[in-house]
C-alpha cells in the first residue's frame, strides 16, 4: 500500500480573508497557478469543480487528446472561512489520475503571532493509493506536471501580495 501525504507551507503578507478569497473565489483563483478557475459550494457535501481554460484546450487539441471541461472535482468536507477548507479532490484531465481514488486536500490559514499582517498558508494533500496524482501535485518532471503545489502557492502569494502573478 502506498500512502503519500504532501505538506506545503508559504507565508503571505495578507489578511486571512484575502487568502481565503484567493482560494475559493473563481474571479481570483483563475488568475494564478494554472489559471483554471474553480467553483466551490462552501457547505459540507458541497461541490468543488475546476475548469479547463482556453490554453489547456488548445494544448490538448495540438497534442490530439481530449480535455474535459471539468479538470478536477470533489466535495467539501469542512469549510470554516477564512481559516480552514477541507475537501476531496480528483484530477480528471489525465486518464491515469482520473482512475485513482479521491484524495483529501486541506487548506489551513493561520495569522502569524510574530509578523503582524502575515499569514501561514498550509496545504496538506493526502494521496493514498494515488501515485500519479502524487507525482503531478509534487511537480514531478517525469509526469510533465509543471511545478505542482509549490508553483501554485508561489504564484498565489505573488498575486495576493502584488496584484500580479505568473499569469499577469
Describe the structure.
By secondary structure, the chain is α+β, with helices and mostly antiparallel strands. The protein has a domain at 5-35 and 80-162: Alpha-D-Glucose-1,6-Bisphosphate, Chain A, domain 4. It contains six helices and seven strands; from the N terminus they run βααββαββαββαα. The protein has helices at residues 16-24, 26-29, 54-62, 95-98, 131-138, 148-162, and strands at 5-12, 38-40, 47-51, 70-80, 84-91, 103-111, 119-126. A seven-stranded antiparallel sheet has the order 1-7-6-5-4-3-2, covered by helices on one side. The chain is globular, with a radius of gyration of 16 Å. The N and C termini lie far apart (41 Å). The mean pLDDT is 91.
Strand order of the largest sheet: 1-7-6-5-4-3-2
Task: Give the strand content.
Answer: 25-35%
Show unreliable segments. none
Largest sheet data: 7 strands, antiparallel
Helix share bin: 25-40%
And the CATH topology of the domain at 5-35 and 80-162? Alpha-D-Glucose-1,6-Bisphosphate, Chain A, domain 4
- Separation of the first and last Cα atoms: 41 Å
Secondary-structure element sequence?
Answer: EHHEEHEEHEEHH
CATH architecture of the domain at 5-35 and 80-162: 2-Layer Sandwich
Q: Briefly, what CATH class of the domain at 5-35 and 80-162?
A: Alpha Beta
Query: Could you say which structural class the secondary elements and strand pairing correspond to?
Result: alpha+beta
Amino acid at each position: 500500500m502506498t500512502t503519500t501525504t504532501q505538506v506545503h507551507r508559504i507565508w503571505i503578507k495578507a489578511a486571512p480573508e484575502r487568502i481565503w478569497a484567493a482560494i475559493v473565489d473563481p474571479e481570483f483563483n483563475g488568475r494564478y497557478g494554472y489559471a483554471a478557475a474553480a467553483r466551490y459550494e462552501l457547505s459540507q457535501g458541497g461541490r468543488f469543480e475546476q475548469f479547463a481554460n482556453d490554453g489547456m484546450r488548445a494544448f490538448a487539441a495540438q497534442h490530439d487528446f481530449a480535455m474535459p471541461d471539468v479538470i478536477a472535482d470533489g466535495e467539501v468536507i469542512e469549510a470554516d472561512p477564512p481559516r480552514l477548507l477541507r475537501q476531496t479532490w480528483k484530477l480528471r484531465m489525465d486518464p491515469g489520475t482520473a482512475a485513482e481514488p479521491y484524495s483529501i486536500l486541506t487548506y489551513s490559514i493561520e495569522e502569524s503571532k510574530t509578523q503582524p499582517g502575515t499569514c501561514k498558508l498550509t496545504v496538506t494533500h493526502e494521496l493514498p493509493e494515488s501515485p500519479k496524482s502524487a507525482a503531478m501535485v509534487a511537480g514531478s518532471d517525469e509526469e510533465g506536471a509543471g511545478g505542482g503545489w509549490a508553483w501554485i502557492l508561489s504564484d498565489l502569494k505573488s498575486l495576493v501580495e502584488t496584484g500580479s502573478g505568473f499569469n499577469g
